[in-house]
Amino acid sequence: xxxxxxxxxxxxxxxxxxxxxxxxxxxxxxxxxxxxxxxxxxxxxxxxxxxxxxxxxxxxxxxxxxxxxxxxxxxxxxxxxxxxxxxxxxxxxx
Length: 94
Fold this sequence. Notes:
By secondary structure, this protein is mostly beta strands.
């Protein structure tokens, strides 16, 4: 998935590192301080939502364990105030 840098007024999400991963991976998230609602949606490769992780305003990190998911390719989307800001792809190995 190709994405462009968005103005940080809406928020931003980094590519998870490491990727692909086994064990733990980290996603850095930036959410505007005045946002009323923000979360990461984790989706299967075909778009089925499997997990929603609330994120705090400002800069934060989300850690994911590969053991929460089956091996495969997933998408994650940062949603701020009900609007999808950016989507990235992650690969989980075992």
